[in-house]
């Protein structure tokens, strides 16, 4: 029995990495998909975000599993883009069963808290924290009308712990954990569940165009290999997490198997935060 058969899943940041892993895993389990990414650059983000071609690669791979897929570019920093995305998704599928708030940026970073510019701080909050809020704002009325739904916010162990020289990212991800808890209370009576996943260090899986470990290494001004060694040394299980491990947790939170789980965080970190 496919765990997301006849469900419609909306995933942000689906062009690569964890977002692509979530899309593939949902497609394997029978879901139809609304996939979105920015498809271009964003001011003050010092590395390349996903292209529209990368989003189409994700979509094609999902169609190969039999999924119906709508792709639409949207900047989660824009309420107009998010509203248009949800309207297009509803026009195509008529409902949204699961929202996966995955889009996020790992930099600007790599400096002490007072050295961020106002613009750098605002872009981190605008994408990582206000982005998920914009999606919730657009999708919650749909799920209230349906009287069911599951929202899954991809936070981070940076939503639970501090990381030196990453104050903007850490503050935004702590915000996502708080947003998750309050939204869970707001929507529990409508049979809508809201949970967060806190991945620890995730390796850059080339098959998924993974990118984030390199972003972190670049922000700290160290070699990718050195960052990978630091990540490996910091986890209890002596192995870092794969994007598919995160997708597996997403699948559980999206599916009926977790029907009594809301307002919580699922930590997928190979023991990183246990210390
Ligand atoms: N990789 C890790 O080690 C790790 C660990 C913990 C949490 N996370 C979180 O997981 C999520 C996915 O990260 P990833 O590792 O796959 O990184 P990634 O950079 O490969 O993927 C993030 C995606 O979000 C998209 N995006 C960024 N800004 C956007 C915007 N304004 N509008 C729309 N899309 C936007 C990017 O284009 C990209 O496709 C992020 O929220 C990240 O913070 C990652």
TrEMBL record:
InterPro entries: NAD(P)-bd_dom_sf, Sc_DH/Rdtase_CS, SDR_fam. It comes from the Bacteria. SUPFAM superfamilies: NAD(P)-binding Rossmann-fold domains (SSF51735). CDD domains: SDR_c. PROSITE patterns: ADH_SHORT. GO terms for molecular function: oxidoreductase activity. One of its GO terms (biological process) is bile acid metabolic process. Keywords: Oxidoreductase. Belongs to the short-chain dehydrogenases/reductases (SDR) family. This is NAD(P)-dependent dehydrogenase (Short-subunit alcohol dehydrogenase family). It comes from Paenibacillus phyllosphaerae.
